[in-house]
Every structure is written in structure tokens, then in C-alpha cells.
């Protein structure tokens, strides 16, 4: 039974709490995935950087700058970072659910939660990934960090706008139009917005030609898999927690009916 029919709609606080809990679960799972698939690639990239460093150092400079956080500390902090990121995204998902639930045109709270998580994965992760794929920490020019940050944030906004444009386009055909027509309109609107964004934003490719292509590819797949794990787990966990609200309310109504009888 949908949350919005036949009973009182849960408060924002109740939804936010479940979003944060779902985000914590998803963040920890994403941390496990990132640790198991990405750490070895980061170590390999750092080893390549350190092997190339002596040749790039000025004469007489025989040491590297000390790391602020050791690699062991970074590995331990990975789980904290993904957990905090998951909690933040869980809060955003719960907020979006609260604001958009009545506009999603579905009676299923599970489909609504999964739909929002899927839209976020598409707009926040996949669209930016194609334009600006992740690079290992040893790759990149510090002088361009501001340009890369602005470009990445811009493509995230464009990704969300593209998703929204797709939704509006799917609803634009008159009532009774076939589903395939709505799907074509949605895909066309989404692709047009994304294509415009890709053309307008600058391309940034700072990976040295000597960097191993297989290592770069493996790192990017691990990074994408971490995000996919987080948003998939977040959507499923949030939907499950919403389902528990529905189950609890149905039990309360049944008890009330028994007492009234």
C-alpha cells in the first residue's frame, strides 16, 4: 500500500531518519567495494609516481614531501569517508522524496524510492563520469584543480537538468499517447541536454601517455562500481525502510479495527 494513500503521510523527520540510516548502510557497503577493488590500483599508481619522481626532482633535492596522512590512515579513513558521503546522499534522497513524492505518479513507494535513486545515479554519477572519468590520485596537474572542480560541478548540474528534462518530455505527449512515444521523447530530451553540456564544457585529459592504460581502466571501473554500489544499496535500503512504515501502519489500523468492532 502506498504511503500516500489510506493513512497519514510520515513526517519529514521520520523519512529523513530512514534516509540517513539507508545512507550509512550504503556508504559502508560502498567502502567495502572501494577497498577491495580500488586500493590496489591506488597503490600501483602511487608506485609509478614515486618511480618517476627522482628524474623530475631538481638536482640536490633528494627527498619527497612527507605525506600528511599515511597510506594506512587513508585506507582506514576510506570507510569513514564513504559512510559520511552515504549519510549525506541519504539525507538528500529523503528530502527529494519528501518534496517530489506526489509528483512521481506512482502508487508504489518502492518504485518511487528506486526511481529517485536511479535518477540520481544517472544524473550525478553516470553523466559526469563519461565527461570527466575519475583518475588515480597520482594523476593530474595541481595547477588545473580549480578548472577541473568547476567543470565537474557544472556537469553534475547538467546531469540533473537532463534527467529533469527527460521526465518533463515523457509527460509532454497528450493523454493516451503510447508508451514508446513518451520513452522516445524522454530519451531525446535527455540526450540533447547532455550533448549540449558535453560540447560546451572543456575536455580535460591530463593522463600521461606513459601511464598504463589497463591500470587507468581498472581504477575507473572500480570508482564507477563504488558509486553504483552506493546508489543501488541506498535506493534498496530506503525502499525497505519505507516498506516497514507501511507494514507498521497496516498493523496499527488492523488493531484499531479490531478494537472498534
From TrEMBL:
<dbReference type="InterPro" id="IPR012666">
    <property type="entry name" value="CbtA_put"/>
</dbReference>
<keyword id="KW-0472">Membrane</keyword>
<feature type="transmembrane region" description="Helical">
    <location>
        <begin position="78"/>
        <end position="100"/>
    </location>
</feature>
<feature type="transmembrane region" description="Helical">
    <location>
        <begin position="12"/>
        <end position="35"/>
    </location>
</feature>
<protein>
    <submittedName>
        <fullName>Putative cobalt transporter CbtA</fullName>
    </submittedName>
</protein>
<feature type="transmembrane region" description="Helical">
    <location>
        <begin position="221"/>
        <end position="243"/>
    </location>
</feature>
<feature type="transmembrane region" description="Helical">
    <location>
        <begin position="180"/>
        <end position="201"/>
    </location>
</feature>
<keyword id="KW-1133">Transmembrane helix</keyword>
<dbReference type="Pfam" id="PF09490">
    <property type="entry name" value="CbtA"/>
</dbReference>
<feature type="transmembrane region" description="Helical">
    <location>
        <begin position="150"/>
        <end position="168"/>
    </location>
</feature>
<keyword id="KW-0812">Transmembrane</keyword>
<feature type="transmembrane region" description="Helical">
    <location>
        <begin position="112"/>
        <end position="130"/>
    </location>
</feature>
Amino acid at each position: 500500500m502506498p504511503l500516500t494513500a489510506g493513512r497519514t503521510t510520515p513526517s519529514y523527520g521520520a523519512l529523513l531518519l530512514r534516509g540517513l540510516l539507508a545512507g550509512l548502510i550504503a556508504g559502508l557497503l560502498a567502502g567495502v567495494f572501494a577497498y577491495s577493488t580500488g586500493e590496489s590500483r591506488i597503490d600501483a599508481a602511487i608506485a609509478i609516481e614515486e618511480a618517476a619522481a627522482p628524474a623530475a626532482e631538481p638536482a640536490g633535492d633528494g627527498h619527497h614531501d612527507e605525506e600528511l596522512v599515511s597510506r594506512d590512515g587513508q585506507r582506514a579513513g576510506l570507510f569513514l569517508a564513504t559512510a559520511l558521503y552515504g549519510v549525506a546522499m541519504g539525507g538528500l534522497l529523503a528530502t527529494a522524496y519528501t518534496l517530489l513524492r506526489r509528483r512521481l505518479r506512482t502508487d508504489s513507494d518502492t518504485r518511487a524510492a528506486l526511481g529517485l535513486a536511479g535518477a540520481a545515479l544517472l544524473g550525478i554519477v553516470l553523466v559526469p563520469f563519461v565527461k570527466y572519468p575519475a583518475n588515480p590520485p597520482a594523476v593530474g596537474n595541481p595547477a588545473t584543480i580549480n578548472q577541473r572542480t568547476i567543470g565537474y560541478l557544472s556537469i553534475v548540474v547538467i546531469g540533473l537538468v537532463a534527467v529533469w528534462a527527460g521526465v518533463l518530455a515523457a509527460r509532454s505527449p497528450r493523454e493516451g499517447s503510447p508508451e514508446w512515444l513518451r520513452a522516445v521523447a524522454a530519451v531525446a530530451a535527455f540526450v540533447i541536454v547532455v550533448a549540449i553540456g558535453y560540447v560546451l564544457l572543456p575536455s580535460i585529459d591530463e593522463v600521461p601517455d606513459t601511464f598504463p592504460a589497463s591500470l587507468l581502466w581498472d581504477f575507473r571501473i572500480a570508482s564507477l562500481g563504488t558509486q553504483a554500489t552506493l546508489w543501488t544499496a541506498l535506493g534498496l535500503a530506503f525502499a525497505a525502510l519505507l516498506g516497514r512504515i507501511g507494514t507498521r501502519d497496516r498493523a496499527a489500523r488492523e488493531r484499531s479495527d479490531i478494537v472498534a468492532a
